[in-house]
Amino acid sequence: MVYLLDLVVPVLFLLSGSLCGASVVDPVPTFDHRDPVTGEILKCPKCPPGTFMPAHCTATTRTQCQPCRDGHFTKLWNYLPRCLYCSNICTGNQEVETECSPTTNRICRCKEGFYSADDFCIRHTECGPGYGVQTKGTQQTNTVCEKCPAGYFSSSSSAVDLCVKHQECTSGKQCSLVCSPLHIENIFISVIGGYFYTILHFIGVHAW
């Protein structure tokens, strides 16, 4: 019997400690304030986020808290005499990501096609002809371009387009700008005096 009690008592002690710990709530943060009447240093509760403190606590009353009005906020427990103004204004190439609320300032982000650098929104770099997009730009990073490898091309400037693979002609045809029959060696198009002359050079045949 004594042996069983030796086992049960520590277990009950541990359980009681766990239960007590589970019921503990983080205390309201406080700040020191001297009562102007008594001169006593009081531990005044702070006001929660989304509110401000219009009046300190006294020896007989608690801290007074009031909610922030529209366009103002407090993010932390505080004893501010007024709420902070939502000062972030999204302008130019910015747009609102998170609107102002009683507990948060307005948060801005760059619009689509722009990225943030030194507090400015800058348009993503376009990759020029002969270059394609390796990594598309984001709201935090610029475009990364790469030179088109052999067998690929890019004929335009773009911040989103990749290099495109050259078209493969079907059997029995070769490609210049467009596919052409094999018996035609070359096609030259020139403009002389405002007229178009087409010179076709056939195998063993010359057209003048």
From TrEMBL:
One biological process term from GO is: apoptotic process
Residues covered by the TNFR-Cys domain: 67-108, 109-145
**Signal peptide range in chain numbering:** 1-22
Keyword Transcription applies = no
TNFR-Cys-type repeats, residues: 67-108, 109-145
Location of this chain's protein in the cell: Secreted
Task: Quote the cellular component terms of the Gene Ontology held in the record.
Answer: extracellular region
Per UniProt, the keywords (alphabetical) are:
Apoptosis, Disulfide bond, Glycoprotein, Repeat, Secreted, Signal
Q: What is this protein called?
A: TNFR-Cys domain-containing protein
